[in-house]
Specification:
The protein is mainly β and 479 residues long. The protein has one domain: Methylamine Dehydrogenase, Chain H (7 Propeller). It contains one helix and 34 strands. Strands 1-28-29-30-31 form a five-stranded mixed beta sheet, with no helix packed on it. Strand 33 and strand 34 form a beta hairpin. The N and C termini lie far apart (46 Å).
Length: 479
């Protein structure tokens, strides 16, 4: 296998403060979200990054006033993907610590416990990270056999719950031996777009004809993150360039535009591949997909790149994450004219993908960092709004309902230092996106059991945050 995906890293990695509610009211609207995909689940909870545009935003509000507490569901698994369907039932895609089998869990929305589970085929995919819920609340994922699955859930005759494979479409003929699907997302025609670590992009019409069509991107370009879809097409960022692709009538992908970026001299500490760590994000003030943004891998300071979706024209290139470590493995958060970028520079991943290569430099401290960039109203460029050293240990999530960014902070055992250890404490945090100031925190726990490993939390109905960790899922809510 040429590239072990993010999944492999998360799998291997898995080997009371503030009772006051924040007195924050959004000073400006964050809108619109990307268009609702008719073949995906509810906006904000259908994909790891919230929606098929990967905005990392949600129309749902998070925990309200009161003392915030948390409960850990121990699943002996790393759980990077926690989604919620229209029926309100959370579905988690996890990978077992022992045996490394990919496992789907249906969770009880009231307490987070696992109602039932389904083990998938283990193979070169090693469990997967990226999946989505379709418009019928089925989990769409590619298993270790390179089969595209739709997994539904239903009540049993005894009143319990059951997870079942409702459909299966083999992709082995389209995905080369030794390669694996990295990301997938539906388009507006109901086809499933997918991308492999080895640089193959394809569509699968599993609901109608069963046709699978592919396009190999230039040799040497690999894909280490997921993909995004919008009415304009599918966005893919390789280790060399960002692409917007469309499909011919028969589903064959074709490149609409390609824009290379500065990939730097090598993989930075706290990144999993040599190149951008971004899942490309659609956003914009008019249609919700006016722009497409990623973070490059320039050294010593990375840049936020904003392209026009229509033609790939560069709107701006803005240096970000200057206050802390300048490197990011996470997707930007973006709604309207605002973009937020979190640093992962120096984050202590316990293991790296095969072929990741040495980091440049060989090591780096996890200082943290969070930046906000605004695209000017006339589209003439962008401006850095603020930049700080927020020590985010997860992909932040923005609520357009209450106007707050939410993440998990990894704090040093010795305050005021940049060191990390197996005893580090973790705190849930709410951040004012207008200023970058942390306005409320709540203690979650300390040590390996609570490591959120730069995974994203989902805001679920009922003002609940469901956050994956290396060993299960945290349910965060007002007590």
């Amino acid at each position: 296998m040429r590239l072990r995906t993010r999944a492999a890293v998360l799998v291997t990695a898995a080997l009371l403060l503030s009772a006051q509610a924040p007195a924050h009211a959004a000073a400006e609207p964050y809108a619109p979200l990307p268009p609702v995909n008719p073949y995906a689940g509810p906006p904000g909870t259908a994909t790891m990054h919230g929606d098929t545009g990967s905005s990392d935003a949600t129309p749902l509000p998070g925990p309200g006033a009161g003392s915030v507490g948390s409960h850990r569901t121990a699943l002996a698994s790393a759980c990077p993907t926690v989604l919620v369907g229209a029926d309100g039932l959370p579905v988690a895609l996890c990978t077992e610590i022992f045996g490394r089998a990919p496992t789907v869990h249906l969770l009880d929305p009231s307490d987070g416990r696992s109602l039932t589970e389904l083990t998938l085929a283990k193979g070169s995919l090693l469990g997967g990270v990226y999946a989505y819920l379709d418009h019928r609340d089925r989990l769409v994922v590619v298993d270790g056999n390179r089969d595209l699955l739709r997994i539904g859930h239903r009540r049993t005759a005894s009143g319990g719950w059951q997870l079942t494979v409702d459909s299966r479409l083999p992709l082995a003929g389209a995905v080369p031996d030794g390669d694996a699907v990295t990301g997938l997302s539906p388009d507006w025609q109901g086809r499933v777009w997918f991308a492999t670590g080895g640089g193959v992009v394809g569509t699968a019409d599993d609901g109608n004809t069963g046709a699978v069509r592919t396009l190999a991107l230039p040799a040497g370009e690999t894909i280490a993150n997921s993909i995004s879809t919008a009415p304009e097409g599918a966005a893919v960022t390789t280790t060399h360039a960002t692409y917007l692709l469309t499909a011919r009538p028969d589903g064959t992908p074709e490149v609409r535009w390609r824009r290379p970026y500065d990939r730097g001299p090598g993989r930075k500490p706290g990144q999993l591949s040599w190149g951008s760590g971004s899942t490309p994000t659609f956003f914009g003030p008019r249609t919700g997909t006016d722009y497409l943004t990623v973070v490059d891998n320039a050294a010593p300071t990375v840049n936020l790149l904003v392209h026009r979706t229509s033609d790939g024209g560069l709107v701006c290139s803005v240096p970000v994450l200057r206050a802390g470590g300048s490197g990011s493995e996470n997707s930007p958060v973006a709604v309207g004219n605002a973009v937020f970028v979190a640093s992962t520079y120096g984050y202590p991943y316990p293991a790296l993908p095969d072929g990741a290569g040495p980091s440049v430099p060989s090591s780096g401290a996890f200082r943290g960092g969070l930046s906000r960039v605004d695209v000017r109203a006339d589209g003439s460029g962008c401006d850095l709004r603020w930049d700080n050293r927020t020590r985010s240990a997860a992909v932040p999530r923005l609520s357009t309902a209450d106007g707050l960014l939410r993440t998990v902070l990894r704090e040093p055992v010795i305050p005021g230092t940049d060191g990390t250890s197996a005893l580090d404490p973790y705190r849930y945090a709410e951040i004012d996106p207008e200023t970058g100031r942390t306005v409320r925190t709540a203690y979650l726990g300390a040590g390996f059991l609570f490591d959120t490993l730069q995974m994203v939390g989902s805001i679920a109905p009922g003002r609940v945050v469901l956050q994956g960790t290396t060993t299960g899922v945290l349910r965060i809510a007002v007590e």
